[in-house]
Amino acid sequence: MPSRYDDLERPPLDEAALRRALVLPGSLWSDVQVVNSTPSTNALLASRVQDAPAGSTRPDGLVVFAEHQTAGRGRLDRVWSAPARSGLAMSVLVRPPDVPPNRWSWIPLLAGLAVAAAVRREARVEAELKWPNDVMVADRKLGGLLVERIEPAPGSAVAIIGIGVNVSLRPNELPVPTATSLAIENARTTDRSLLARAVLRNLEGLLTDWARHGGDAEKGGLHTAYVKACMTIGRRVSVELPNAPPVVGTAVGVDSAGHLLVRSQGSQHTFSAGDILHLR
Predict the structure, then answer these.
(1) What pLDDT does 2 receive?
(2) What is the fold of 15-228?
(3) pLDDT at 73 > cutoff 70
């Protein structure tokens, strides 16, 4: 990492300090790396998995941070960027043991819980979750998640969890008017290192407990915790899907697979994906 930087309010991450704090005996995290710039931390991790020589050890538990992510990707391949060191842009590589693939749909939901809990505890900002992958403050987006499943060889699937959080963005730097940042929300801290450690410790705990129960979200309280943190449930919503008319109704819960349940015109609909608009 360079020893000099131009914005004193946005210091660089200390790779060695993060590694000392997170890569411990028995930890889920095997290594922590900080790169100066990359188009996408998810794409960077995916390329490392895909390019690994046959028979080599996969980098399970690898955590990658980018000081500047120039083409971060969200759902539906939406692209966004932010000033260098103004947020957390990170991806982690995990391989949930003993969890069948049909239960991996809970990974983005538990990752959202990890981020929201870290923001509430460390920054003292009341973060909530918008199904399926947004971290919100009231109706403003603070961060988002993108989970991708990669199977470089039969039976060798891994999950890449991408996390982005707006930390020190100023009002004139926001990508859209409906976004926000911890600085704008008068957070108790905008220390990215502190937030990163909290997110990863929360994520490790949730992933470990979820895997211990074979991916059953009803056991261990994951389903209950998500329902409590999800601001979408109980709201009137419009669910927009490609090549289909929107479904307008009331979000009434999430099922055992983490899918959103919406009651509309006397019927209950189940959604595994979709753009959700909260209606007033």
Answers:
(1) 43
(2) BirA Bifunctional Protein; domain 2 (3.30.930)
(3) no
